[in-house]
Amino acid sequence: MNQKKPETIETERLLLRGFTLDDAADVYAYAKNPNVGPHGGWKPHENIEESRKIIEDLFLGKYHIWAMVDKGTGTLIGSIGYEEDTKRPETGCMELGYAMAEDFWGKGLMTEAARAVIRYGFETMELPMISIYHNPVNHRSKRVIEKCGFHFEGILRRANRIYNGVIRDMACYSLTKEEWRKGV
Questions:
Q1: In contact, 174 and 130? CB cutoff 8 Å
Q2: Is 3 part of any domain?
Q3: Domain contains 1
Q4: In the chain, helix, strand, coil percent, each to 5?
Q5: CATH number of the domain where residue 138 is located
Q6: Which range marks the domain in which residue 107 is found?
Q7: DSSP secondary structure string, 28-94?
Q8: Is residue 71 part of a domain?
Q9: What is the pLDDT of residue 2?
Q10: Mean of the pLDDT values across residues 76-80?
Q11: Which residue, of 53, 86, 158, 184, has the greatest Cβ tally within 10 A?
Q12: Rounded to whole angstroms, what are the CA distances from 110 to 24, 100, 179?
């Protein structure tokens, strides 16, 4: 199923835009880092062709994903977006996910991007609820999630088989449109 390219969103320091196949080298630059993908459960990319295939099959085909571009440098530094929450079928809930180049961690950029995409999800996509999950040992992602106002639901034990076959727990969070409105 081909998704419509997401609208461009601008924040103070970021430009969030749709991906193109020309972004493959930039995606590979951050996705090959062994400190990036495994936190999200995916293997580091082995080559630019693998990154191009991910863009084509997932970012342009299956999911609603934005490329995160640093406005100061023009560098593509990550991805953020939505996919169907398979744990909540037929509810209209979408799952938020993201990845960012390690050189840009700790600067508040992911929180800035996430807040903008959450706003877009509730206001433009008219989502009733947004969910997000993380590996319980990924404290950076947990911090972004908390800063964005998500509510902790609990730990779903032994819930996620990652790329290397390891089964791990998932920390579960959600945010309803009503909760988000109260916090805006």
A1: yes
A2: no
A3: no
A4: 35, 30, 35
A5: 3.40.630.30
A6: 9-183
A7: HHHHT-TTTHHHHT-PPP-SHHHHHHHIIIIIIIISEEEEEEETTT--EEEEEEEEE-TTSTTS--E
A8: yes
A9: 43
A10: 97
A11: 53
A12: 21, 7, 21
